[in-house]
Amino acid sequence: MWLRLLWAGLWLGLGLALAQRPVEITFWHTLDPPGREALEKIVAEFNGRQRDYRVVLQYVGDLREGALKLTSALRAGNAPQLYYGEVSFVGRAVQENLALPLDEHLAALPSDFYPALMEAGRFRGRTYALPVELHLPVLFYNADQLASRRLTPPQSWEALASTAQQLTTRSAKGFVVVSDVYSFNAVVMGRGGQLVREGRPNFTDPKVVESLEYLQSLVRGGSAVSRNIAEAPFAMVDFVRTKVFMGIAPITLWPTLEKRTPIPFHLGVAPMPRAPDGRLPLAGGNLMVLRGASEAQARGAVALWRYWMEPGVLAEWVKATYCLPLRRSVQPLLEDFYREDPRRRVALGGLEQAQTWAQDPEVTLWYGFLEEALERVLKGNANPRQALEEAQRKALSVERR
């Protein structure tokens, strides 16, 4: 009798231990420092404050490296349950049945989230991703160089060309052009154009062609230097070493410039130039729960996001990354942060003109053709219209397969 009771007690204890074991969630991310350290802190705090879930964080390289590793993992059947992906990836993830819908887990969501920002995680009326690190582009400039020439930050594209020319010397260029799809799209949208229209590539639209002609004229005229995808990291190095004096980049690059790089000049930050009908591209990172995750893992992923979005936690996240605050209730907690350095408010002023930069599922299939065209034009001096027409033909041929 006593032996039977002993075995029953052992099995009961084992059952309780298994029942109390937290649900494990593997989380792949692509964040660089200082955002990486901030994310590690958030995950550690979340794991420590509850016993239902345990999030295992893993860095998998930059956005492009992460996408390649994710593709391989999905084919091999060992993909993570939670993935930090760029907002342009959401549509593709839905089309390929990779991302799970999350609306049922978002009941009783606080009403102070900015609707326009939350749209970055929605596709065709449903929520497939949870925004965490959204940003807008700004104009970074060498404030000392502009001040020495009594120049003000350019507010129009015509003024940017003129300012770049006046800043250019024998040893430095006024502006740096990076020929990746996001950077080019920022110029296109800022000039009132669209790379995608009604779900199809729109490369031959006059405003797209004019945007590339504009950039080529800066490079041809000697007032700008062009950097391709492989050279993109050197664009920041050029700026820090005073080899170029202006560049357009996401505001989230600022903490890297400010906290991890010695800058031998006063950093200027201003709104990106914009035509009257221009828009600002909203980009950044979302959390996606991937196919194969259990119901419990999906609930745990949303629980992590809800903790991340608590006003105090979100305020510290914004301070670390300079991303846009997703909730109105966090604004009072950021007043000292913005008052300490008013330049940090620059991106907030562009929210009314913000629009998600790309949500079309086909973007991930054709952006390579566009970037090839950009490099041929900006590095090889090819004809902008002809290069864009060829890129459009290639993109459309992929769509028809």
Record keyword descriptors for this entry.
alpha/beta, D-Maltodextrin-Binding Protein, domain 2, 15 strands, 16 helices, 46% helix, 401 residues, 2 domains, three-stranded antiparallel β-sheet
Structure characterization notes:
It comes from Meiothermus luteus. GO terms for molecular function: maltose binding. InterPro entries: SBP. With 401 residues, the chain is of the alpha/beta class. The protein folds into 2 domains: 22-134 and 283-356, D-Maltodextrin-Binding Protein, domain 2, CATH 3.40.190; 137-271 and 362-400, 3-Layer(aba) Sandwich (D-Maltodextrin-Binding Protein, domain 2). The protein is built from 16 helices and 15 strands. It has helices at 2-20, 35-49, 63-76, 90-95, 115-118, 143-148, 157-167, 181-190, 206-220, 232-240, 254-260, 295-308, 311-321, 331-340, 363-378, 384-400; strands at 23-29, 53-59, 82-86, 122-123, 126-127, 130-135, 137-142, 175-178, 196-197, 200-201, 224-227, 246-250, 267-271, 280-289, 354-356. The strands form 5 sheets. Strands 1, 2, 3, 6, 14 and 15 form a 6-stranded mixed sheet that branches. β4 and β5 form a beta hairpin. α13 (311-321) packs parallel to α14 (331-340). The radius of gyration is 24 Å and the shape is globular. Mean pLDDT is 90; it is low at 14-18.
